[in-house]
Amino acid sequence: MRRVIKISAPGKLMLFGEHSVMFGKPCIVTAVDQRMTLVAIPTEERKLKIEAPDIGIIGHQRELDSLRVVANGPKGVRFVETAVKVFNEKFGLPFGVDVETKSAFETSGLGSSSASTVCTVKALAELTGNRLSKRELFDISYKTVLEVQGTGSGFDLAAAIWGGTLYYLYGGEKIEPIKIDKLPLVITHSGIKAETPAMVSSVKQKHKENRKVMDGIFKLMEEITDSAKQGLERKDYKEVGELANINQGLLEALGVGCAELSRLIFAARNSGAYGAKLSGAGGGDCMYAIVANRNKGRVKDAIKDKGGRVIEVRANAEGVRVEK
Ligand code: PMV
Q: Does residue 156 carry a catalytic annotation?
């Protein structure tokens, strides 16, 4: 009988510490329950075949032993392809593989690339009987991401693997679960796609030009992230909201804000949120607001009024898993 394996992994939402995490400071990320699902079937032919109908990829195929990192093409394919390449180099795949992905991700910015990378590595590990620990899964996935995009702290991979809400340091130097059950969030997409590598290099450039000031900002971001961790553990959402507002001010100082995100952030704050900030690289993608349940309706209406797309998604989701 042909073996079929089905894996799913969650997306992510950066809560605190974006950008400063690239400079050795901690961040807090939560896994969100929009999941990537990947089905993998081993084949005799030494080929990798990918079907990703959600992003228009049909009948994509490559020779397994001559996979290489390509600079362009659909992101979904690049991460899956490179993950197979990295896995094959490390363990030697004894078969070809047919892969099909199905994405529940409604928008950019919620970590579909990291989720598909993690799903691919996990699927190959299961199919080859390699009992990889979470850390090993992370290391192979992180190598994949660095080969594809050259940069990244790896926080999104940690969320996809461990799930829950994590206190995280660059490269997975620290991956510490934060004990919380629910997070009262309203998550919104700005309608603009963020260009993460460009935002990361603009902050690097600013750091080069004005090292002392920028280091001061990163230090403050570290203090905010540490206080937010405590606030989350105490369920002090008022405090966490206040810290989100301060973090947003500092992100503006880094130059990663934009008018569209600010409009949504102010709409949320002015309609009763405890606080709101952008999430991720900035310049587009998502923002979130911390909102008491009783005010959620009002905040969502205010956000929609300003053209934001509210994404109904739960935080603190389960990490990668094998599906029945
Ligand atoms: O744009 P996103 O959601 O992938 O987040 C990027 C977060 C950064 O801290 C700017 C970069 C990183 O890899 O941590």
A: yes
